[in-house]
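Fold sample X.
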Amino acid sequence: MSGELTGKKVAIIAADGFEEVELTEPRSALQKAGATVHVVGLKPGTVRGYRHLEPGESIEVDVPLTAGRADDYDALFIPGGLYNPNALRSDQGMIDFVTHFFRSGKPVGSICHGPQVLISAGLASGRTMTGWKAIQVDLKNAGAIVRDEAVVVDGNLVTSRNPGDLEQMCPRLVEVFATGSGVD
């Protein structure tokens, strides 16, 4: 994996309540592949992760949304968690940030509850995706073609169901972020 993403910049968007491992493991895989990875948050400071329902590690926000420009990044990753997607999808600036990646054809990855952000941005319709079991019906209702699989790749979009799928998702994420697309 080393070097595949050298020279690439990846934004990971996060708010308080992200599932800790769904941010830290993909970030580590992307960095090991050579990417520069920035956590983009709704505000400066830190965001608090969770380990299921227990408070977890706080992560430093590298770039607050007000200072972040989607044009500065080659790819986007959206972790899940119960609260993270709700905060992200409730902010129009963040919806605009996410939408930029789709309009520009840049690769996007998301796991667990993270695809809820894509639903709110109107970006799920017609895409083949997966997510946490409880949101699969939401994806379907938003017009997505839903597959209950560990990793689903639809062109430049990589989605995954839960932390148990990270071992399979991270290599595919690196692959799609390196090439700009993939096929399942």
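Fold sample Y, listed below.
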Amino acid sequence: MRFTNNFDSSKAVNFTHILKWKLFHRQQKEIESKNNILESKNDKVLLESKQNFICWLSHATFLIQIDNKRFLFDPVFGSIPFYKRKSPFPYNIDDLGKIDYLLLSHTHYDHFDKPSIKKILKQKPKLITPLGMDGYIKKIDKKADTHCMDWYDKYELNSELSIHFVPAKHWGRRGLNDTNKALWGGFILKTPKSTIYFSGDTAYDSHFKDIGGRFNIDYALLPIGAYKPEFIMKNNHTNPDEAYKAYKDLKARKMIPMHYGTFELSDEPLSEPLEWIKKIEIMHKDEITILKSGEVLKI
């Protein structure tokens, strides 16, 4: 089975163009000499607390604690195939504590990292994934407790805490013949005191307004990197301006940027998304919170 819908970006992906870009155009790109552009912060004391928090762990990896339950999103602890990590993971894995729920947004390598997932599965968390991803998980751990969701499905942890799977304009693939064999998307973590939206990878489209119309979002975790060259990336990712526009469509209270400064996935300089979002943040200080790698935000 292959998933297809109005937000399937694979329809706009010309793999011949991508191959030419990777083989020829990217070779001409000036190699950025400055690695580790992410400023880090060691908040280990807060990480060990019972306080509700959001912790950005670089790229698209987040650790969120709600009512002493820990939710880990798209863990990537090291380098990935074809891409070396440019900024170090901010903690030892043991510092993350007991993971109760592992949430995976789609199958691309920078979000679905088998070595990282395998380490977390030793703790036997509950996995929340898109439809079709259970087949990928079974290849890592046949006994993993996996719950697969379609867009706008709801998974209730208890009467007050729930996880919702929501649309994204993107796609998924790991090999030559598995395009869109698993769905892709983002997550809403709905709690009594706050609602958190994790977008996963996504381009800009009408789904942000739809999600914002269904949920009263407090924190929107949105991607700002991997947007050049535009003729390839515009259908897959958002640049900082598009991410801010998405935040406004969502009618969220606070935007937290992610998906930058960690892997050199595209043609813009590694530091450019952060510099760009800082300019937007200056104009909208009460709306955007830029976290350092490893920083804990109390909620």
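Sample Y note: The longest strand covers residues 62-66.
Also: The mean pLDDT is 92.
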